[in-house]
Amino acid sequence: MAAVLLLYVGIVLGLYVLIYYNFIKGRQCTSDVSLQGKTVIVTGANVGIGKMTALDMAKRGARVILACRVKETGEAAAHDIRTLSGNSQVLFMKLDLASIASIRSFCKTFLSSEPRLDILINNAVLGLESKGKTEDGFNMVFGVNHLGHFLLTHLLLDRLKQCSPSRVVVLASSAHKRGKIDFKNLNPSGETWMEILQAYCDSKLANVLFARELANRLQGTDVTCYAVHPGRCHCVVRTNLGRSFPHWFQMLLYPFVWLLFKTSVDGAQTSIYCAVQEGIEMYSGRYFADCRVQQVLPHARDDAVAKKLWEVSEDLLGLSK
Length: 321
Fold this sequence. Notes:
It contains ten helices and eight strands. It has 321 residues and is an alpha/beta fold. The protein has an eight-stranded mixed beta sheet with strand order 3-2-1-4-5-6-7-8, with helices on both faces. Helix 2 (48-59) links the parallel strand 1 (39-43) and strand 2. Helix 5 (140-162) packs parallel to helix 6. The protein is globular and about 65 Å long. Mean pLDDT is 87; it is low at 16-25, 232-239 and 253-260.
């Protein structure tokens, strides 16, 4: 009986290993490009995918700025990355993407103190636990995931051009497939679970369209940009997006998350790939998943919508005045 049980356990474990490495783990970035002398900003780099992305950049010798909202966790992450990478040039700078004033303050401080910006990784993301509005009155999820990064990129774009060839990486998601850009209702209340879910999907579609339009506007500048899905196809990554879920619900989900979701290290691979991989410049503006360029649905490659979203975003942020 024990032998049969061991056989079954062995078969199950073998199947799990086979499934994990073939369908969950995904491709790894194999580039050994050095970033010595380069400066990288990673937003939301205190945890999860952002922290693993920043760690990789630091191991490549870059000067890495962790742009995070919470000082305590941001400084702790900077300390961890300095220790793990042996790179002392890893710094925390406060950035709250839910605040226009904070974004402008961050950029003013960065531009006055840092002579270079070679890679901007717009990694920070709010998920299904984020209700309400930003301090400027925008839907919290859409405001942070799209408008906050839109403004940040806008304010740092000249420095990226000065340091070209340079790159912008935008963390999107396969959730963009369910997104829509409703120009009559870009600022829903964001109170119910369904409203928050839709706002998240909409913001991820906005990320994909933003990268597309940014690439169009950057033609001839030697600055390229890429939208990335951190998972593999529909695979999900273990992150802290559900940190505000009830504790009992987190405990219920934990076994499934641990077994079936990608680790943050694996989830960071496509962001890292688009930040450093040589020879992908021709795909500027495209969407990547599993370290490969992917075709998106028609509504995610609509140049007219992308252009209008850019213009509306400028209006909302007061950039067109």
